[in-house]
Design goal:
Blueprint: E1 5-10, H1 14-27, E2 31-37, H2 40-50, E3 54-57, E4 60-61, E5 64-65, H3 67-70, E6 79-84, H4 90-95, E7 100-103, H5 108-125, H6 130-136, E8 144-149, E9 152-157, E10 161-167, E11 170-175, E12 180-183, H7 187-193, E13 199-201, E14 206-209, E15 213-217, E16 221-224, E17 229-231, H8 237-246
Parallel strand pairs: 1-2, 1-3, 3-6, 6-7
Antiparallel strand pairs: 4-5, 8-9, 10-11, 10-14, 11-12, 13-14, 15-16, 16-17
């Protein structure tokens, strides 16, 4: 795991390819671009022969889609950053254990953060099960996290979550759209995962997104943007007041 990060770029748009090469050369001396490819056939051959550690790839290519490439490597040891305008592929990208997903058009800082995130987590990634990392991973920009619902993992915007409610060994996630997700993890899991993302544990059963607090009634009840009313425990009143002060603009 020492030395430069051997990387391949898979992109069939020449201008996009050159932009990626230039951005990486400007910001990441530790990355060695060992190949640039635009077709499925060439990409599969290059991965087999060159054994890259990191792949940046578009999904829709002229001769098919990138998942055909990944299907050739079911036990892959490389990481993938998807960069594509085709957001409908996001769910499947995560199923392939992508390190992260960036939608076109994107700001340079998004890709820079994604690669920085990979670089800093590089050793840990190769020391742990890929799926566990994927479940726990929050994107560098802090916008999404993965929720285990039934037999699948859903990418959810943190800002869309109004509150989380304990349901035994499960957790109900209430979204601002009105939709509810029954997640296969206890509330404590989300309390830890979202601790630095503006969430606060109100009581034994409720975790709230402070950005969705609409009002506080008589310092006893929090009213959220979706109309939910949650009681404040006595020991949390002072702490909550301090938190609300920090959220004032």
């Amino acid at each position: 795991m020492n030395g430069k990060i051997k990387s391949i770029i898979i992109e069939d748009n020449e201008n996009a390819m050159e932009s990626l090469v230039k951005l990486i050369a400007t910001h990441f001396s530790e990355i060695d671009i060992i190949g640039k490819h635009s077709t499925i056939k060439d990409s599969i051959k290059a991965i087999k022969n060159q054994n890259p550690e990191l792949i940046l790839m578009d999904i829709v290519l002229k001769d098919g889609n990138a998942f055909e490439i990944l299907d050739h490597f079911p036990n892959n040891t490389f990481e993938v950053i998807f960069i594509t305008a085709h957001s409908e592929f996001m769910k499947r990208a995560f199923e392939h254990f992508a390190f992260t997903f960036i939608s076109k058009p994107f700001e340079d800082i998004e890709l820079i953060r994604a690669i920085q995130g990979y670089s800093t987590k590089r050793k840990r990634i190769f020391d742990h099960q890929r799926l566990q990392i994927l479940k726990d991973f929050i994107k560098e920009d802090g916008s999404k996290f993965l929720v285990h619902v039934g037999n699948e993992y859903l990418a959810v915007d943190i800002s869309d979550v109004v509150n989380c409610k304990s349901d035994g060994n499960y957790t109900q996630l209430h979204l601002k759209s009105g939709k509810k997700l029954l997640a296969s993890n206890p509330l404590k899991y989300y309390e830890n995962l979202l601790a630095y993302k503006g969430f606060y544990r109100m009581n034994r059963f409720d975790l709230i997104n402070m950005n969705h607090v609409k009002s506080i009634y008589k310092k006893e009840t929090v009213i959220l943007s979706n109309g939910t009313k949650i009681s404040i425990t006595s020991r949390n009143k002072i702490r909550l007041a301090e938190l609300m002060e920090s959220f004032k603009y």
